[in-house]
Amino acid sequence: MSDSNAVLIGKKPVMNYVLACITLFHGGAKEVSIKARGRSIGRAVDVAEVVRRKFLPDAKVKRIDIGTDQLDPREEGGQPTNVSTVEIVLER
Amino acid sequence: MSDSNAVLIGKKPVMNYVLACITLFHGGAKEVSIKARGRSIGRAVDVAEVVRRKFLPDAKVKRIDIGTDQLDPREEGGQPTNVSTVEIVLER
Q1: Which residue in A49, B41, B59, B75 is deepest, having the highest Cβ count within 10 Å?
Q2: Are B66 and A48 a contacting pair, CB within 8 Å?
Q3: B65 to chain A nearest CA, in Å?
Q4: Does the interface ipTM go beyond 0.85?
Q5: Is B72's pLDDT higher than 90?
Q6: How many CA atoms lie within 13 A of A73 on its CB side?
Q7: What is the pTM of this model?
Q8: Is residue B53 within 8 angstroms of chain A, CB to CB?
Q9: Does the beta-carbon distance from B84 to A41 stay under 8 Å?
């Protein structure tokens, strides 16, 4: 799948990302990948659920992956920190 | 799978839930289900990742499900609210 069909979840309201997913599907995408990390992970699940339940009932969860990203330390000599990640792939 | 192998994620530190998962596995469980909803969803992913990466490298993510729970309105006549849920099943 091309990464151009990815929606990266940040701190904006859920509906912004829902709209981004729907726009991709309406533009012909067969799959949309919803990616988030850290505190945005819950919002990624919200986005997938709203897309599926309110807007595109024929969209299905194809795959969900979790993982860990290592972030560079903020200060020199500091410890790298780990942050959890999630990728939810919807298909229709 | 019996629900006695479920760990429900709340507001406590991640390591509390990690310890609960490890205790279940050491007690002979083949599968442990990590369940969370709303703002605890990110913490559920943290728990699964820490268990898998730091403590039980032979544990695998068997399945991840997302869903929506409808909560009763707080006041009479109010709207029910939706909350996203996640279930991460680890197996070894």
Answers
A1: B41
A2: yes
A3: 8
A4: yes
A5: no
A6: 6
A7: 0.90
A8: yes
A9: no
